[in-house]
Design brief:
The complex is a heterotrimer of chains A (332), B (309) and C (332).
Chain A lengths: L6 E13 L4 H5 L6 E13 L3 E6 L5 H8 L7 E6 L2 E2 L5 H11 E4 L13 H11 L5 H14 L16 H14 L4 E5 L7 H18 L2 E6 L2 H7 L2 E6 L2 E7 H6 L4 H9 L42 H4 L4 E5 L2 E4 L5
Parallel strand pairs in A: 3-8, 3-9, 6-7, 7-8
Antiparallel strand pairs in A: 1-2, 1-4, 4-5, 9-10, 10-12, 11-12
Chain B lengths: L28 H11 L1 H19 L35 H37 L1 H16 L2 H12 L3 H28 L2 H8 L4 H37 L11 H9 L6 H37 L2
Chain C lengths: L7 E11 L4 E12 L4 E5 L6 H8 L7 E10 L2 E2 L5 H7 L4 E4 L3 H4 L6 H11 L17 H11 L5 H4 L9 H13 L5 E5 L7 H18 L2 E6 L2 H7 L2 E6 L2 E7 H6 L4 H9 L38 H5 L4 E5 L2 E4 L5
Parallel strand pairs in C: 3-8, 3-9, 6-7, 7-8
Antiparallel strand pairs in C: 1-2, 1-4, 4-5, 9-10, 10-12, 11-12
The chains are: A alpha/beta (332), B mainly alpha (309), C alpha/beta (332).
C-alpha cells in the first residue's frame, strides 16, 4: 500500500489474537495453544480531518482495534502507519511516547474513566505535566481554558468525580484528552452510558471541538444512528472482520452487505409508517466461535443469502461504487 | 441517580467568564470518620478503650513512683492494694508499673512491625499485581512459602536465627505480616489496574511508577488500613507469646509476655499477676478490634462505591 | 363498549429515601393504570424514578427507602396492605419482574436449568395453561425445555446444563424472560430488559415480548430510557421526569403530537436515520438533583418555553385530548 500523506492512519492486515487461558496442566502437556481472533486481518485508512465511524456489536473487535491504535494492546501481526511511520516496527515500546502524544482516547464509562480520589484539576493536570511539560504557572490557566472549551464552569476543577453528573464527567474526560493536544482522537462509545438528553449535548460538543481544533476522529459505536450523525466514513465490523465501508450517507442509502442490512433493519424507528416490531422478519443470530473462526466469511452462519462457498473461501473486497466497498462473496 | 453536590454549574450557552474560584466546602474526612464512629456504639466503645489505654500508658507511670525493674523482695507477692494497684510480683516489683511499661513496649513493637510490614508488603504487592509475569510468580511463591508456616513457627524461626531482643521481635512481626499485606495489595492492584482511569493515564503519558503510587495506591488504602488494625491486635498477642516463651524481649525489660511468664509459676499464690496482664491484653485487643470495625465500616461503603460502579 | 377494569392501579404513589439530613423523594405522586394485556411504556432518564416505581409496585423498596403515600391496587387488592408472606405469593406468580442486568441477576453457582426448575416448582399456578409450561401434564424437565424453546433458544437440552457465565447477554436475557414467564403471570414488569444488548438481539427480544403478550395475555410494564424501543412495542406511554409524570397517552398520539416540552425535546434529540442534520437538537442543562428540586415544574430550568408561573407552581395534570394527559402550564 502506498503511504498516502492524506491519511493520518493506515492499517494494513492488522491481527490481534488473545491466547485462551490455559490450564496449568495444559502447559505441561504441550497442547496447541488456542487463540481468540479478536481482530483478524483488518485494513483501512483514516483521512486527515475526517471522522471515521467504526460500527459493530459486542464481540466485533472494535474496542480492541481502538486500544491497539493507542498501543495499549499489542497486535499479533500487521502494520499501523501513523503519519507515514509504522509504529509496530522494531521495539514498540520506543514508539509509545510518540504515539501517545498524537493519539488520545475517550472511553465509554464516564464513571470509571476518572480516578475517584483525584480532583478534576489533578486529573487534567496529568497530561499537561507529563506530555506538554507545562510550566507550573500556566497549568491552572490551561486547565480553566480546557474546562471552558468543553462547556464546564472553571470551579469544576475542584470537584471530585462523584460530585459530577455523567455528562459533566464525560466532558472532563474530553478536556483531559484534549490537554495532550492530540491530532487523532479515538472515542469508544463515548455517549452510550449517558442519559438521552445529555447524549445530544456531548455529540454536539464533539462536532464543535473537531471544527475548532482540527481534529481527526474515530468514533467507535454500536449505535448506527449516532455513528451516522457524526461520521464522514463508516466501516462495519463483525467478528474481527470489516464487512463494508462507505461514506456515511451512501452506506445508509445503499447498504449492500447482508449484515449491514440486518443491522439497519433492527434499529427501532420512531417513524410510525415503519414501525413494525411485530412484522419484522425473524433475524437469525448464530454466534460463531472466535477461537476457530471459519476461513471464509464470518457472517455465513447468520446470513440469509449464504452459499456453500461462503464458509471456506476467504472473502475479498469488491468496490461497488465510489469509495464504497463490500466484503461479500455475492459480489465477486 | 445523578446527584449534584456542590456549586458546579455547567449550562451550555451561559458560560460565565467569571474566573472566580470557589473551592467547595466539604466536611473534613476525619470529621466524617468521627461521625461514623460516634454512631456505632461498638466502635465508640472501642475508641474510648483505645484512648483510655493510650492515656494510661502515657501518664500512668506518674501515679506511682515505682521502677518497673528494681527488685524489692520484701514486698514480693503482695495482693492488690491502694499502694500497689495490681499487686506485686515475685521480685517485689509493682505489677501495675510493669504492665504500663510492658504495654508501651508491646505497642511500640506491634505498630512498628505492622507499619514496616505494610510498607514492604504494599510495594511488593504493587509490583506483583501491576507487572504480573515472572516477577509476580516469584514474589508470590516466596509469599506462599512464608504462608505455609503458622505465624508462631515463623516468628520462632526468625528469633532463633537473629537472636532475641526487641528489634528482632519487630522483624518477626514484620515477616509474618509482609505476605499478608502483599497478597492483599496484589489483589487490589489487579482490580484497580483494570479500571479505565488507569488505562487512560497510561495513554496520557504517565510512567509505571507514578501510576502505581499515585493512581493505584490511593485507591487501595482502605483494606490495607483495615488489615493493619487487625494486624496490630494480632501482633500484640504474637509478641506476648514469644516473650512468654523467653524468645522475645529479654528480662528484666518488662513486656506483657514476660510478665505472664513470671506470673505463671505463681498462678495459685498470686493470680493477680497473670490475671491483670491478661485483662490488659484482652481489653486492648477488644478496643483495637472494635475501633477497627468502625474504621472499616467507614471505609467500606466508600470502597464499594469507588471500585465497583 | 364497557370500560375495562384496570389490572393494576397506581394512585398518587410517593416513595422516599431517608438520609440522615433529609428526605429524598424518588417518586412523587404518580398515578396510572395498566389494563390487562396491554404494554405500557415508562420512559425516563436517571433520577426519573422509573426503576423505583417498578420496585415499589412489588414492595421491593428496602431501607432507607419506603413507600410514603399512595395506593397500589392489583386486581382490586391493595398491595401495600399485604404482609410480606402474601406479597411473596404474588411475586413471581401473578406479577413477574425482569431485572436490568442479566449477567448479575442469575445465580452464578447453579446451572440455568436448575434455576428454572426451581422457579417453576416454587411458583406453580394451579390450573393455568396458556403457555405450555403451565401444563401439568409435562414433567418439570420438559416444561423447562418448552419454556426455553418458547423464548427462542435453539438448543434447550444443551443450554439447561450451562452456567450463566457460559452464556451471552442475549441468551441470559431470554432466560430471565423465561423465568418470568414460568407461571404465566398477569403482569410483567420489565426494567430496561434490552439496554445492555446489541441491537439485533434487542430486536428479537422485543418481538418476543410482543409474542408473549399475544399468546399468554400478560400485561407488560416496560421501563426504559430508549424512545425507539417504546415506539416499537408499547400501546401507551408514560413520560417520567424527576419523579413526576410529564405526559401520558397512547403511543401514536404522543409520538405524533407530543405536548410536553420535555417529550418534544427527547424526540427531537434522538438522531434519526432518515434525517440529515448538522447539529443535533439538545435539551440544555443537566438533570436535576433530587436534593434541590425547583418549587414549580421540575423541568422548568431546562425548558425553552417556560413561563414565569412554571418556576413557582407545580402544573396540574390536564387531559388535552382523549386519554392524552400532560402536566404543563402551557395547556392550562
Amino acid at each position: 500500500m502506498n503511504i498516502n500523506r492524506q491519511h493520518i492512519i493506515e492499517i494494513e492486515d492488522l491481527k490481534v489474537y488473545f491466547p485462551v487461558h490455559q490450564h496449568i496442566l495444559g502447559n505441561i502437556f504441550q497442547r496447541k495453544k488456542e487463540y481468540i481472533h479478536a481482530v483478524d486481518g483488518v485494513s483501512f485508512a483514516v483521512k486527515r480531518g475526517e471522522t471515521f465511524g467504526l460500527v459493530g456489536e459486542s464481540g466485533s473487535g472494535k474496542t480492541t482495534l481502538g486500544r491497539t491504535l493507542t498501543l495499549m494492546v499489542r497486535p499479533t501481526s500487521g502494520k499501523i502507519f501513523l503519519d507515514g511511520e509504522n509504529i509496530l516496527e522494531g521495539n514498540i515500546k520506543e514508539h509509545e511516547p510518540g504515539v501517545r502524544k498524537k493519539i488520545q482516547m475517550i472511553f465509554q464509562d464516564p464513571f470509571s474513566s476518572l480516578n475517584p480520589r483525584k480532583t478534576v484539576k489533578q486529573a487534567i493536570g496529568v497530561p499537561l505535566k507529563e506530555q506538554r511539560r507545562e510550566e507550573r504557572g500556566h497549568v491552572e490557566e490551561r486547565i480553566i481554558e480546557l474546562l471552558e472549551l468543553t462547556g464546564l464552569h472553571p470551579s469544576t476543577r475542584y470537584m471530585y468525580p462523584h460530585e459530577l453528573s455523567g455528562g459533566q464527567r464525560q466532558r472532563v474526560v474530553i478536556a483531559r484528552a484534549l490537554a495532550a493536544e492530540p491530532e487523532f482522537l479515538i472515542a469508544d462509545e463515548p455517549v452510550s452510558k449517558l442519559d438521552l438528553s445529555i447524549k445530544a449535548q456531548i455529540i454536539n460538543l464533539f462536532g464543535e471541538l473537531k471544527k475548532k481544533m482540527g481534529l481527526t476522529m474515530m468514533f467507535i459505536a454500536h449505535d448506527l444512528r449516532m455513528a451516522k450523525h457524526v461520521s464522514n466514513t463508516i466501516a462495519v465490523m463483525y467478528h474481527g472482520h470489516l464487512m463494508e465501508m462507505a461514506e456515511s450517507q451512501e452506506l445508509f442509502r445503499n447498504p449492500v452487505h447482508p449484515y449491514t442490512q440486518t443491522l439497519l433493519e433492527a434499529i427501532p424507528t420512531l417513524n410510525p409508517e415503519h414501525r413494525k416490531a411485530q412484522h419484522r422478519k425473524d433475524l437469525k443470530v448464530q454466534e460463531i466461535s472466535l477461537i476457530n473462526p471459519p476461513q471464509g466469511c464470518r457472517y455465513f452462519k447468520s446470513c440469509a443469502n449464504a452459499k456453500k462457498d461462503c464458509e471456506r473461501t476467504p472473502v475479498k473486497r469488491e468496490n461497488i461504487g465510489e469509495r464504497h466497498w463490500v466484503a461479500c462473496h455475492r459480489f465477486s | 441517580m445523578s446527584l449534584l453536590i456542590g456549586g458546579s454549574s455547567s449550562n451550555m450557552g451561559t458560560l460565565a467568564s467569571q474566573k472566580d474560584s470557589k473551592v467547595p466546602k466539604r466536611p473534613h474526612p476525619v470529621r466524617l470518620l468521627w461521625e461514623q464512629i460516634y454512631q456505632s456504639k461498638s466502635a465508640l466503645i472501642g475508641f474510648m478503650i483505645v484512648v483510655f489505654v493510650f492515656l494510661l500508658i502515657a501518664f500512668g507511670s506518674f501515679l506511682y513512683d515505682y521502677s518497673p525493674t528494681k527488685m524489692n523482695i520484701a514486698e514480693a507477692l503482695r495482693p492488690p492494694s491502694p499502694a500497689h494497684l495490681f499487686g506485686t510480683d515475685s521480685m517485689g516489683r509493682d505489677v501495675f508499673t510493669r504492665i504500663i511499661y510492658g504495654t508501651r513496649i508491646s505497642l511500640f513493637m506491634s505498630f512498628s512491625g505492622i507499619l514496616l510490614a505494610a510498607l514492604i508488603g504494599v510495594v511488593i504487592g504493587l509490583i506483583s499485581g501491576y507487572y504480573g509475569g515472572v516477577a509476580d510468580n516469584l514474589l508470590m511463591r516466596v509469599s506462599d512459602f512464608l504462608f505455609a508456616f503458622p505465624s508462631y513457627v515463623l516468628a520462632l524461626f526468625l528469633m532463633v536465627i537473629l537472636g532475641f531482643g526487641i528489634q528482632n521481635v519487630l522483624f518477626a512481626i514484620c515477616l509474618v505480616y509482609v505476605p499478608i499485606f502483599s497478597r492483599l495489595m496484589r489483589g487490589m492492584t489487579q482490580l484497580i489496574k483494570a479500571e479505565q482511569f488507569v488505562e487512560a493515564n497510561i495513554t496520557l503519558g504517565m510512567s509505571d511508577v507514578k501510576i502505581m503510587f499515585l493512581e493505584i495506591l490511593p485507591n487501595a488504602v482502605s483494606p490495607i488500613i483495615v488489615q493493619g488494625t487487625i494486624g496490630i491486635a494480632f501482633a500484640v498477642v504474637l509478641e506476648a507469646g514469644l516473650s512468654f516463651l523467653g524468645l522475645g524481649v529479654q528480662p528484666p525489660t518488662p513486656s506483657l509476655g514476660i510478665i505472664l511468664a513470671d506470673g505463671k509459676e505463681f498462678l495459685r499464690m498470686a493470680p493477680w499477676i497473670v490475671g491483670m496482664t491478661g485483662a490488659m491484653i484482652t481489653v486492648m485487643l477488644l478496643g483495637f478490634n472494635l475501633l477497627g470495625d468502625g474504621v472499616r465500616d467507614y471505609l467500606d461503603p466508600k470502597l464499594a462505591r469507588e471500585i465497583r460502579r | 363498549m364497557s370500560v375495562k377494569e384496570p389490572l393494576l392501579s397506581v394512585k398518587q404513589l410517593k416513595t422516599v429515601f431517608k438520609t440522615r439530613e433529609t428526605e429524598l423523594v424518588a417518586v412523587d405522586g404518580i398515578h396510572f393504570d395498566i389494563f390487562p394485556g396491554e404494554i405500557l411504556g415508562l420512559i425516563g432518564e436517571s433520577g426519573s424514578g422509573k426503576t423505583v416505581s417498578g420496585l415499589s409496585i412489588l414492595n421491593l423498596i428496602s431501607n432507607p427507602g419506603c413507600v410514603a403515600e399512595g395506593e397500589i391496587l392489583f386486581k382490586g387488592r391493595s398491595l401495600l396492605n399485604l404482609s410480606e408472606r402474601e406479597m411473596r405469593e404474588i411475586r413471581g406468580r401473578e406479577i413477574a419482574y425482569i431485572f436490568q442486568d442479566p449477567t448479575t441477576s442469575l445465580n452464578p453457582t447453579k446451572t440455568v436449568g436448575w434455576q428454572i426448575h426451581h422457579i417453576l416448582s416454587a411458583k406453580r399456578r394451579n390450573g393455568r395453561e396458556g403457555f405450555r409450561s403451565g401444563n401439568e401434564a409435562f414433567s418439570l424437565k420438559e416444561r423447562t425445555q418448552h419454556l426455553l424453546a418458547d423464548v427462542g433458544i435453539l438448543s434447550p437440552e444443551k443450554v439447561i446444563s450451562l452456567y450463566p457465565h457460559n452464556l451471552s447477554g442475549g441468551m441470559l436475557q431470554r432466560i430471565l424472560i423465561a423465568m418470568a414467564l414460568g407461571s404465566s403471570p398477569d403482569l410483567i414488569i420489565a426494567d430496561e430488559p434490552t439496554t445492555n444488548l446489541d441491537v439485533i438481539v434487542e430486536a428479537q427480544i422485543l418481538k418476543l415480548f410482543l409474542k408473549l403478550r399475544d399468546t399468554v395475555g400478560s400485561a407488560i410494564l416496560f421501563i426504559t430510557h430508549d424512545i425507539g424501543v417504546i415506539a416499537e412495542t408499547c400501546d401507551r406511554v408514560i413520560v417520567l421526569y424527576a419523579g413526576k409524570i410529564m405526559e401520558r397517552g397512547d403511543i401514536d398520539e404522543v409520538l405524533n403530537h407530543p405536548l410536553h416540552p420535555y417529550t418534544v425535546g427527547l424526540l427531537q434529540s434522538s438522531p434519526r436515520l432518515e434525517e440529515e442534520k448538522e447539529k443535533l437538537y439538545q435539551i440544555k442543562g443537566e438533570l436535576p438533583s433530587l436534593l434541590e428540586l425547583p418549587k414549580g415544574c421540575r423541568f422548568s430550568p431546562r425548558c425553552d418555553r417556560a413561563l414565569p408561573v412554571c418556576a413557582e407552581t407545580l402544573p396540574p395534570m390536564i387531559e388535552v385530548q382523549k386519554d392524552h394527559f400532560v402536566s404543563c402550564h402551557l395547556y392550562v
